[in-house]
Amino acid sequence: MIALTLRDLKLAMHSSGAWLHGVLFLLIFALLCAVALGGDKTVLSSIGPALLWLAIIFSLLLSFEKGFGDDARDGTLEQLYLSKLSLPIIAASKLLSQWILIVLPLLLAAPLLGYGFGMGADDIRATLIALLLGTPSLLVYGTFAGVCLISYRSGGLLLILLTVPLMIPTLIFGLSAVDSYAADGIINPPFKALAGISLLSVGLGIPAIAAALKTHLETS
Amino acid sequence: MTFAAFTLDICGVSVSRGARAIVERFDLTVSGSELVWLRGTNGVGKTSLLRMAAGLSRPDAGSVTRTLGGAAVSASVLTGFQGHRDAIKPSLTVHENIAFWAGLSGSPDAEAALAKVELTGREDQKAGTLSAGQSRRLALAQLWVSQKPLWIMDEPAAAIDVAGQKIIDDLITQHVRNRGAVMLASHAAPRGLTEKVRFITLSASSVAGAAV
């Protein structure tokens, strides 16, 4: 499983920075927000957490199509299926590599943007913890939808339509977690809800992605 | 290495593409030291049948059972598959490609496999710079390191020159002598294959098997 994840990372290193597109998009989104809101730090700092969540959701939506697409097109997926690895292991290792390549750079960039928006240290910390807890669920939804749509040439829009409704609970709890952080710290219901959503979606998502991969193989 | 006794038993199998049945009530048993050659015109269902035999798809009707050393096993234990797509990552080197698959199957023979397909000396070349025939040979090396007893090969000689065809023939011959088996589909006439070949000719909706 680790071999598979490492290979994905190595492939990304050879892709002339394609994995950084998400971060680039995040920066551009933040820049445009700052310009659109007149650069007023009192406004920016109060809606900073919401902007960060939106920026990260949009960046993720852009990145989901990669997922298993290349592996399915070049025949790697069918060879992996016939290897000793089981489909859930293949799904889990892909989630891990996608998390490292797509989510982690966004999480690293988020505090800088929060600082740029003039958010307080507490708000930045709360937003980062909420993102850390919530993004695994977003990644699972996107990867699952991506696998379901592998065979469709123009699945991009469909992927967004399928994924966005599932993302809304994470977004709602993510923002209320930041609001309640000042009063209650990290042990408050929205943070627990975020962790619960992510655990549940990873737990159910791995077998769901495996089943979708099997369906794709059998119909191709 | 030689392989333990195994069988692939295809029994009364039907395969369809879309709504159209292309293979109906097909029976075939393949065991060690056999070379089965599927022939037939385009669209007659060779690829569908091979994918099903490899365990990549399920038949609409009938059953496919696989045994190794007398015990029922799953497709991933028994079959290796070489399809139209080579499962090669162009941005990785030849060695990185083969080493990954060798590592997955626990085979120590990545270099030996490259030598067999005469790609020695190209280890550090990006796989994307290989010619179509060389990519095909790298895919063949990947099949070799999978250490599977039963090779399912769909047009293994596509894009391959005469020297390359000899490499394929030699590998197939060696595999069959190691008590492996090969089930392949190819339009090319039998070449230097010295093992006994069992021909199966598929024709539209009526399947006749004949041993030669």
Describe this structure in words.
The complex is a heterodimer of chains A (220) and B (212). Chain A is built from nine helices and no strands. With 220 residues, chain A is mainly α. Chain A has one domain. In chain A, helix 2 runs parallel beside helix 6, helix 7 packs antiparallel against helix 8 and helix 8 runs antiparallel to helix 9. Chain A is globular, with a radius of gyration of 18 Å. Chain B has six helices and ten strands, in the order E-E-E-H-E-E-H-E-H-H-H-E-H-E-E-E. The chains are: A mainly alpha (220), B alpha/beta (212). The interface between A and B is medium-sized, with 21 and 29 residues.
What does the secondary structure layout of this molecule look like, with pairings?
The complex is a heterodimer of chains A (220) and B (212).
Chain A: H1 2-13, H2 21-36, H3 41-63, H4 69-73, H5 76-81, H6 87-116, H7 121-148, H8 156-184, H9 189-219
Helix pairs in contact in A: 1-6, 2-3, 2-6, 3-6, 3-7, 3-8, 6-7, 6-9, 7-8, 7-9, 8-9
Chain B: E1 6-17, E2 20-31, E3 35-39, H1 46-53, E4 61-68, E5 71-72, H2 75-78, E6 79-82, H3 94-105, H4 110-116, H5 132-145, E7 150-154, H6 162-177, E8 181-185, E9 198-203, E10 206-209
Parallel strand pairs in B: 3-8, 3-9, 6-7, 7-8
Antiparallel strand pairs in B: 1-2, 1-4, 4-5, 9-10
